[in-house]
Amino acid sequence: MEITVHLNNVPVVLETTGFEGRVNIDRLTAIDYSNLYGEAVTVSALLNKVGMLRAEAEAALAEKKLEKEMYEADSKKLWRRQANRNGGKFIIDGDEVKMSEKALDEALMLDDKYVELCTEFIEAQKNFSILDAINWSVQDKSRKLNNLLKPVTPAEFLSELIEGEVNSFLIKKAGF
């Protein structure tokens, strides 16, 4: 996966492998006590992956919010213009409605497109909240690992490190 960010108008492309397939959140946020060193060596990269997903979800949420608010503003503007031309009344579903902020809000809630946008916004909020919770869980996992592990020599570290998949990364002790 490539992510392009602009720093002082200079595009910088960031690369990551991201997650592949299904992600077992319980396994990802739990600490495997049989391989604490494997956990410790991969948790920063895991936090990075989850943080990038959280950022993507936050951007999607902001886009949905903007889209909903723009539709709301455009709709109200059209109804206000119609009311200005029509003696203080605008038409909704064939009925004349006296112009007021409450009437505009009610008309908006009856608009199918607006309801659809609100539903999409709610879904984006849910997705962001899920990824935010996972992000906090991985941060907590990282703090706990820092408190659990004592300083060791590189040789001790290698002897304690267990090969296998940890935090969506494959650990191999090639050449040791």
Break the fold down into its secondary structure elements and pairings.
Elements: E1 2-7, E2 10-15, H1 25-29, H2 36-85, E3 89-92, E4 95-98, H3 101-109, H4 112-148, H5 154-160, E5 164-166, E6 169-171
Antiparallel strand pairs: 1-2, 3-4, 5-6
Helix pairs in contact: 2-4
Give structural notes:
The chain is an alpha+beta fold and 176 residues long. The chain has one domain. Helix content is 61%, strand content 15%. Strands 1-2 form a two-stranded antiparallel ribbon. The longest helix has 50 residues. The protein is elongated. The two termini are 31 Å apart. The model has no long low-confidence stretch (mean pLDDT 89).
Labels describing this entry:
176 residues, alpha+beta, two-stranded antiparallel ribbon, 5 helices
Mean pLDDT: 89
Extended strand count = 6
What best-fitting shape do the alpha-carbon axes yield?
Answer: elongated
In spatial order, strands of the major sheet run: 1-2
